[in-house]
Amino acid sequence: MKVELLKFPYKYMEYEKELLERELKCNFPEGIISIVKNKITLENIDDNDLDKLYNLTYVYKYIINGQEHNTLQTKLEYSNTNKEELKRQGTRYSTHGLHEYKGKYNPQIVHGVLDILGVKGDAKVLDPFCGSGTTMVECAHYGLQSVGTDINPMAVLISNTKIKSLGLDTKYVRNFVKRAAHSVQNKEFDNDGKNDDHRMEYLLKWIPEKTLYIIEGLKELFEAETIDISNFLKITVSDLIREYSNQEPSDLRIRKRTSPFPNTPFLEAWLNNVYKYLDAIEAAQEIRTFDIDNNYAVLHDIRNGTEFLKKGDFDVIMTSPPYATALPYIDTQRISLVWLGLCSSNKIMKLESSLIGSREFVTTEKAKWLEEFKENTQSLPSELSSLIKELYDGLTEKDGFRKQAVPILLYRYFSDMKKMFDRTYVVLKQGGKFALIVGNNKTTIGGKEYIIDTPYWLSKIAEISGWNIEELLPLQTYKRYGLNSKNSIKSETLIILKK
Ligand SMILES: C[S@@+](CC[C@H](N)C(=O)[O-])C[C@H]1O[C@@H](n2cnc3c(N)ncnc32)[C@H](O)[C@@H]1O
């Protein structure tokens, strides 16, 4: 049988072209593929395999016997966008756009990679660094099952909210938000005694009083609703907090605002956002019913074992781990974390320093890691340990305070990732694959620039934990979202390991 396929009307990155070809080869191993510009001809495919066309990630339409069909990806990607406007690949469809999360990966790559790994039906996927839940939302879209873990409570809340919101009663929420906005607008805030508690004291420092009283009023109203509605609405407020706070919104760290506040009043901006998200959810709900019970996130430090998961239960692991010297995930969201009651203001730094790849140390930890590094007690590959030693020995007084810590931070990062490889190995089925997307690191020490080939070193560390390296595939011009151009990572690598 012969079918014709069309590519999406936007330009594909090099790695997307590669993933498209691999998807076709994996799904139709006997097929004869020819790709000319936007058209693909697929010959010699079995009638029984036609169902697979619907689930291809990088295919826009497929034509069988002159009849044109949209793939599920096309339906999702274009569900709430006028396709004439969509000159670039959409990434905020369905619930994906629900809350900003720095360093999130794009939804297409998740399903594209799962597809080339042969993940089908109701297979079970683990994402040990799930962040804002891109992996699990994609699994819910395609009928797969998934569990995500993350050490950041904000990430877990965003993930679970994105998943549960796929089943939201949007009509009810539309009516509710109208009433809620009206009610807080006309309400005197009862502030008795509240300024005394640490939370309010901190929030008053970072959020203008009038805005704070509005969002506190809203929060109280949300909490009288079901947990899924309440979380959805809290997330929509949280997503606006930085924009309306005394923090400089464009800054990942917490610096005082220098740019002007937005012109749109907070309540108006919030309502606009809620309606926009509800539109996207409704459009996705029209496509299919999503499995919102077998996809979820758990608050967990992946270094601490995986006993709460069943041994050998997962078919595949897919993740984008933190970088060595990663983004300040906690610092960026600290106002939201405090507002949501997920972390008290005096525990922020401790939480930030506990993340893998963090640039922060708790004072006592630094001395401990210096010792570990000197003795290589974590048994990292000797070439890696020597490289880190070279960086350490190359430090001069000209390297600032933060730079001085880089070699030890790298040692800690790779040691932590080794623990992660040990822990995740146990829960994967024999023969199962582990896909990681990660990029290099660059650092200048003693005036000399060093490129740390993080993907290579991670694969070497994984080998020590028993994994087999299948492949390291460079993803040309792939860029994670939300990184500003100065520190954006131009290209990443897809590491594929096998148990
Ligand atoms: C690159 S982000 C993942 C982004 C995610 N793929 C998305 O699309 O939103 C890496 C995540 O690793 C998490 N993380 C760092 N250390 C961790 C640990 N020890 N256990 C679990 N998660 C951790 C961070 O909180 C962060 O959310």
What does this structure look like?
This protein has 3 domains: 3-70; 107-154 and 291-331 and 342-498, Vaccinia Virus protein VP39 (Rossmann fold), CATH 3.40.50.150; 167-285, no CATH class. Helices cover 42% and strands 16% of the residues. The chain has helices at 14-27, 51-54, 72-77, 107-116, 134-142, 153-164, 170-185, 198-206, 209-222, 227-241, 266-285, 329-332, 334-339, 348-354, 363-375, 382-394, 401-404, 406-427, 454-464, and strands at residues 3-6, 32-36, 39-43, 61-64, 67-70, 124-127, 145-150, 295-299, 314-319, 428-439, 441-445, 448-452, 468-475, 492-498. The strands form 3 sheets. A 7-stranded mixed beta sheet has the order 8-7-6-9-10-14-13, with helices on both faces. Strands 2-3-1-4-5 form a 5-stranded antiparallel beta sheet. Strand 2 (32-36) and strand 3 (39-43) form a beta hairpin. Mean pLDDT is 92; it is low at 482-489. Bound molecules: S-adenosylmethionine.
